TrEMBL record:
Gene: omp1312
One of the Pfam families matching this protein, by short name: RBFA
Segments traversing the membrane: none
Keywords tagged on the record: Cytoplasm, Ribosome biogenesis
Organism of origin: Helicobacter baculiformis
Predominant subcellular localization, coarse grouping: cytoplasm
Name assigned to this protein: Ribosome-binding factor A
Annotated function: One of several proteins that assist in the late maturation steps of the functional core of the 30S ribosomal subunit. Associates with free 30S ribosomal subunits (but not with 30S subunits that are part of 70S ribosomes or polysomes). Required for efficient processing of 16S rRNA. May interact with the 5'-terminal helix region of 16S rRNA.
Length: 117
């Protein structure tokens, strides 16, 4: 079980990054929804997950390139607003759990519909 400090760190990082994305000049990044963050134990690296359900492959590629380009600005913003001594290296990933959840819900709905018949 994760401790409260780690969860608070992850939640804070997620909030700081969402704030930083909304302040950037790239409209593609304004609309991104960050779903969760997970920092390593020593705060050296952080995995940031985003909702990509409504993006096609070309849009995903463009957004990941824009995120890579914006990473130094994002890290600088996190350092400025958090008061942390260091900011973790950021890596961005698609949150596939949302797609899996949607598929499971549709399966359950189908099963429920068939059982009523």
């Amino acid at each position: 079980m994760e401790n409260i400090h780690a969860k608070r760190l992850d939640a804070g990082l997620l909030e700081y990054l969402q704030e930083a994305l909304s302040a950037l000049g790239d409209p593609r990044l304004h609309a991104l929804t960050l779903t969760r963050a997970h920092c390593s134990k020593g705060k050296y690296h952080a995995h940031i997950y985003l909702d990509g359900r409504f993006l096609d492959a070309q849009e995903r590629s463009a957004i990941f390139k824009a995120l890579k380009k914006a990473t130094p600005l994002l890290r600088a913003h996190v350092l400025q607003v958090s008061g942390w001594f260091k900011c973790p290296q950021l890596s961005f990933h698609l949150d596939e759990s949302l797609e899996q959840e949607a598929r499971l819900e549709s399966l359950f709905a189908t099963i429920a519909k068939e059982s009523k018949c």
